[in-house]
Amino acid sequence: MPEKPKPKPQKKSTPQPPDTPLPVQLEEFAKPYALVSLPRQAPRRGSPAGQERFRRDRLTGKLHLRLTVKTTAFVASGVVAMGSDLSSNKTKNPPLIKTAVERDNRLIIPGSSLKGVVRSAYEAITQSCLCKTKADKTKIPDGYRECNQKDNREYNKKDNFCPACQVFGALNWQGLIQFPDAEAVEADFTVGFMPSLKSPSRDFPGYYINGKVAGRKFYYHAIRAVDKGQQQGIAVQQAGGEFVFTTRLRYMNLTKAELGTLLIILGQDKSYPNIALKVGGGKPVGMGTMTVEVTEIEQFGSGRERYSSYQTEPQSLTGEKMRQFMEQSIKDAHNQLVQSRQLQELSQVLQWPTDREPPEGMY
User: Fold this and answer.
1) Using an 8 Å Cβ cutoff, are 81 and 196 in contact?
2) Which of 47, 59, 99, 179 would you label with 189, given CA atoms 20 to 30 Å apart?
């Protein structure tokens, strides 16, 4: 009998070096999200400015923001209500509805929800720690452990925080930005039918390189949100397309570079103008896309000026003056804080408008 041909030896795959950034788009896994790679250099830690006094060499003021919903947005309150108890001008309500967060019959985005979204992006484009990750501690790359963890002696110091923790705060340390709730301009809502979503698997192979976390996870925007209809979906109270929220972010003792990094994330950089935020639930199925417009910047003077007279008013920046101020701050951010590769990767994921379709089935 003729001998069976011997199978060809398979080539061994070369392990990827731990400092090689992971490609943003993981098309082979067909996921509605991507990983923004970690900077090759570990977090750059230093002493935060603090809030015990107003620093003359830093900026204090407010950002007036206008958030416009592009795909339906749902921020859950945790309460299920009778549809007959909710009044809407646009829809006939089903018997039971998962309600959104409201105040005085207006939808709101809790400040904590908005802060989490903005902070995640800020961490991704700066040399910052992996904060509040659910990954096992043994899988955190060297130097990326969360600032001021009790079981992490190296970083458990009040003068040793990464760029994001200096601005947004950390365990036992108050940040320099306050996020009030964003309130809807109109007292109305729509009802949608969101698909039932499962918890993502943390064993997905693309999450790790050589057993270590490969990057930070962000969901793509989609041209629309998936609506499964009353027969298959879960009824939710939501903000429809072009719904508008307004808020004012308060900041204290920021450098121009820190404020500029915040403005980049809010889509104010002319080189990356298409960045939009993903807020609330249903991110995998295209929900929660919002664009941001800065309508005014209030810039306060020194503490002495503010408290030495009853007539002191903050400097209001609008129009051309505001544009110039933002451009200078963004320029400083690129020169001092922002990691260009990570910003490019993030902008690809959070780019709006998009032609990307939302996933209709399991992914």
Assistant:
1) no
2) 179
Residue 2's Cβ-count burial label (10 Å; 0-12, 13-18, 19+) is exposed
Contacts of 56 (CB under 8 A, 6+ apart): 302
| Phi, psi angle pair for 47, to nearest 5° | -90, 130
Three-class secondary structure of residue 245 per DSSP: strand
Sequence-distant (≥ 6) Cβ neighbours of residue 288 within 8 angstroms: 71, 73, 74, 277, 278, 279, 280, 281, 282
Contact 122, 164 (CB under 8 A): yes
Cα separations in angstroms, 136 against 42, 145, 274, 338:
18, 11, 34, 27
* Residue 61 bridge partners (DSSP): 251, 299
pLDDT score, position 142: 92
Contact 289, 352 (CB under 8 A): yes
Confidence label for 311 from pLDDT (cuts 50, 70 and 90): low
3-state secondary structure of 347: helix
Residue extents of the structural domains in the chain: 33-43+59-201+215-349
Instruction: Report in angstroms the alpha-carbon separations of 308 from 43, 52, 80, 302, 313.
Output: 40, 18, 51, 10, 12
Q: Which amino acid is at 213?
A: V
Token code pair at residue 323: 């544009």
Q: What is the mean predicted confidence (pLDDT) over 96-101?
A: 96
For residues 331 and 6, the model is more confident at 331
Answer whether residue 5 shows pLDDT above 70: no
> What are the φ and ψ backbone dihedral angles of 61, each rounded to 5 degrees?
175, -155
- Measured between alpha carbons, how far is 292 from 275 in angstroms, rounded to an integer? 9
